[in-house]
Amino acid sequence: xxxxxxxxxxxxLEALTAIAKFRRQRRVGSAWLIGDRRVATKTIEALEQKxxxxxxxxxxxxxxxxxxxxxxxxxxxx
Length: 78
What we know:
- By secondary structure, the protein is α+β, with helices and mostly antiparallel strands.
- It has helices at 10-21, 41-49, 68-77, and strands at residues 25-28, 31-34, 37-40, 53-58, 61-66.
- The model has no long low-confidence stretch (mean pLDDT 90).
């Protein structure tokens, strides 16, 4: 799936950059705490549907991982 700048919102872009920047991520209620930012679960679900983010578990703890497509997208944006 090819993602262009028109199909991603500003909030989604900020969430992607936060996931790339911060290692510390955890779920808090109906949101994710990524570094010092709170990101709604719906935003993460939208990124998962676009195949930009995957939710994986490390030792039973859920974490968010950027796909190669998301890394390439962020490299172009910077």
